[in-house]
Amino acid sequence: MNQKKISVKPFENRPGSKKEQVRQMFDEISPRYDFLNHLLSANFDKLWRRKVVEILKSHQPERVLDVATGTGDLAVLTAKKLPDAQITGLDLSPKMLEVAKKKIKNTELEHRIKFIEGDAENLPFEEAHFEAATVAFGVRNFQDLDKGLKEISRVLKPGGVLVVLEFSNPEKFPFKQLYGFYSKKILPLLGSLISGNKDAYTYLPRSVEVFPYGKDFEERLEKAGLQPLQTHRLMFGIASIYTAQKK
Ligand SMILES: C[S@@+](CC[C@H](N)C(=O)[O-])C[C@H]1O[C@@H](n2cnc3c(N)ncnc32)[C@H](O)[C@@H]1O
Fold this sequence. Notes:
Largest sheet: 7 strands, mixed
Distance between the termini: 20 Å
Order of helices and strands: HHEHEHEEHEHHHEE
Oligomer: single chain
Structural class: alpha/beta
Bound molecules: S-adenosylmethionine
């Protein structure tokens, strides 16, 4: 198992644990989060979430937990594409959840999606409650990755699936160099100009750089009692989708 540092905190000059800082940061950027997400990824984030839902669809789950649901885009897409499923979206940040709740207010999705405040590392559900779980751009923000994955594994039924979408690192020339320049120079500049939060958009490339991906992430899944089934590398490795099954 890789013992290197896999986690950084959002704010170098504020007090608090990573979890407290992550909650603060997402509360602060929540009003601009969706806009920036789509802009900075040139809308690829939407395409990638669609792929997550396609994978989920092939398993036909009845109850789906979207961990670190944020402003709820993946939960909403899942509800639309799996009309018989009940979705629970859970997040640490109350302000991100406010945006999520507005998206479904007065729509029929209000009866199929429940948004709740909570911590991935201490999930408020009994064992084996869900047939499927998803996490999009969330696992990198967990304070304790192994604890979060173990908790998700605990609430999944045996045979249930977890689909994780997360940034990874392109390894080949010239994508590694081009993406490195974009993520370390352009993205923090645009992100801080538009959101007014410089730290959030320097945290993003810093946290991606140290986070495990590929085989290293698959090892973490296994350690949590999840059998990796398939890993899709997206756009030369800028992001990856990991599918794993509860043993
Ligand atoms: C980059 S956003 C992703 C939101 C959404 N899944 C998406 O695809 O846009 C990361 C989210 O993870 C949440 N988060 C981080 N650590 C968490 C934890 N331990 N438990 C629950 N949510 C967490 C943050 O509050 C934030 O809303």
